Amino acid sequence: SLTTPIICYQGAMVADPVTGEVLLHRTVPTVLAREVLDLAEARGWHIHYYVDDVMYVDEVTHQVTLYTSIVTDAMPRAVGNLQGFLDQLPSGREPTKLLVIGDETATTATLAELRERFSGRLYITRSLPTFAEVANRECSKGIALAWLADRLGVAQADTMAIGDALNDLEMVMWVGMGVAMGNAVPELAMAARYHTSAVDQDGVAEAIERYLL
């Protein structure tokens, strides 16, 4: 099992998996979270709201069930209305991230609108084809990895990252050895200096054997 710090929530959090200590946590300001929720309500988007490592939703819908079938340790908590739920939270309890889930075509449009609306104010990225992720503007896996490498005393040239999705882009671009999976999205495939096979062809193991061992 892992004993070194792990990067979570698109880089919004770095935590110690052994002690549970949160080493870095950059949250979404509540005023911006409310703006995202208002937009989601106007557009009819299904949204997840993460506070203190708990996923809150308006209600358990088909999208929630689909999400939990993919992210198996997610335990959704239905609160009826997320804006009303925010009114009940103590001051300072800001979300780690928000996630909008829809079909692949809808998510492309959602991502574009979020980026236009919150440019410079929030970090917007795509993880799975149906997930649009919203986090603090000072977040990304690359930013978190740079912070962690500095904390551990590891030089940038001695780091390696392997990715396939858009939310891996900053990380793969920052490291000394950035590797794109064979199934990577075009933006990541073009940015990576090294390439490996697809995830279902043991591309991670191949990259470790080829470039590290």
Structural overview:
The chain has 213 residues and is of the alpha/beta class. Helices cover 37% and strands 23% of the residues. It contains eight helices and twelve strands. Strands 6-5-4-7-9-8 form a six-stranded mixed β-sheet, sandwiched between helices. Strands 1-2-3 form a three-stranded antiparallel β-sheet, covered by helices on one side. It has a three-stranded parallel β-sheet with strand order 10-11-12. The longest helix has 14 residues, at 30-43. The chain is globular, with a radius of gyration of 18 Å.
Characteristics:
globular, alpha/beta, three-stranded antiparallel sheet, 8 helices
Number of helices: 8
Query: Would you identify the regions where 5 or more consecutive residues have pLDDT less than 50?
Result: none
Helix fraction, binned, reads 25-40%
Q: From the helix content, strand content and strand pairing, which structural class follows?
A: alpha/beta
Globally, the shape reads globular
Order of helices and strands: EEEHEEHEHEHEEHEHEHEH
Strand order within the widest beta sheet: 6-5-4-7-9-8
Based on DSSP secondary structure assignment, what is the total number of beta strands? 12
Strand content: 15-25%
| Spatial gap, N to C terminus | 21 Å
Kindly provide the radius of gyration, computed on alpha-carbon positions and rounded to a whole number of angstroms: 18 Å
* Overall pLDDT level: 95
Largest sheet: 6 strands, mixed
